[in-house]
Amino acid sequence: MGFLDAGFVQGFIRMANDGWEQGWHERNGGNLSYRVRPEEVEEVRECLAPGEWQPVGISVPGLAGEYFLVTGSGKYFRNVILKPEDSLGMIELDGAGENYRIVWGLVSGGRPTSELPSHLMNHEVKKEVSGGTYRVIYHAHTTNVIALTFVLPLKDEVFTRELWEMATECPVVFPDGVGVVPWMVPGGREIAVATSRLMRQYDVAIWAHHGMFAAGEDFDLTFGLMHTVEKSAEILVKTLSMRPDKLQTITPENFRDLARDFHVTLPERFLY
Ligand code: 2HA
Ligand code: ZN
Fold first, then answer.
1. How far is the CA of 184 from the CAs of 38, 175, 190, in angstroms?
2. DSSP character for 152?
3. Rounded to an integer, what distance in angstroms lies between the CA atom of residue 136 and that of residue 126?
């Protein structure tokens, strides 16, 4: 089987193109990574050609020996569907989780996403807390969520509650809520540590004045999560554009009723 025929590669490409079509990936904005299952590595094994080991810049021992499919640094989501071998790469981590080598793709001397530290630290946390079921980390420049980071207090409680109120499905889709990282320099260790700390309790981390990170078990769940949060933010932007207050909304008691019928646990700290 050719590398591009593998199901996980097709799923990755489709998700990247869906994000492009949503308008979340201007120029080289955003990045996507997938922690490849051992049997999926075997499916494409004969297509792999390992390059030189290079430092990741952080240490992720919980991911030692794992393989990831990632978007490339400076690459455009718009081009993924046309030139996947240039836009994407598969990397392997060494036994310490400190060095990586490219085993497929990034053919014109490309490198993995500039946000590789955040992706890997998020994968490490999510692998641990989910018992291994989480495999996708997605970063997008979602317009409406970014707009809200200029007008709402940068607090987990405020963003969670406002986003929940904008669409009845929200508390069912992200019952744990969302976390917020204040503005920080992207690409480095510090923002990776702050984001992965939030990923211990949430599947969504908002980067103020920048975008969002979402984590999930597969491409559908992770894209759907990003889409749901961003759509909710769009409704809030429209509502705030009409008038500054709400005439009616979903109340804390309504949320408790919803939680009971939909069998989700909604933390009381968001039902103030
Ligand atoms: O350009 O989105 O955060 C890629 C990014 C950096
Ligand atoms: Zn970004």
1. 35, 26, 8
2. S
3. 9
Q: Domains of the chain by range and CATH?
A: 1-114 (3.40.225.10), 144-272 (3.40.225.10)
CA of 30 to the centre of ligand 2 (A): 5
46 as an active site residue: the answer is: no
In this structure, the number of other CB atoms found within 10 A of the CB of residue 247 comes to: 5
Mutate to test the pocket of ligand 1, among 139, 145, 181, 226 (most ligand atoms within 8 A of CB): 139
Q: How far apart are CA 213 and CA 219, in angstroms?
A: 14
Residue 20: Cβ-neighbour burial (10 angstroms; 0-12, 13-18, 19+): buried
| Confidence at residue 1, expressed as pLDDT on a 0 to 100 scale | 83
- For 104-131, write each residue's pLDDT tens digit: 999 999 999 999 999 999 999 999 999 9
The phi and psi torsions of 191 (rounded to 5 degrees) equal: -70, -30
- Ligand 1: centre distance to CA 146 (Å): 14
Phi and psi at residue 178, in whole multiples of 5°?
-130, 150
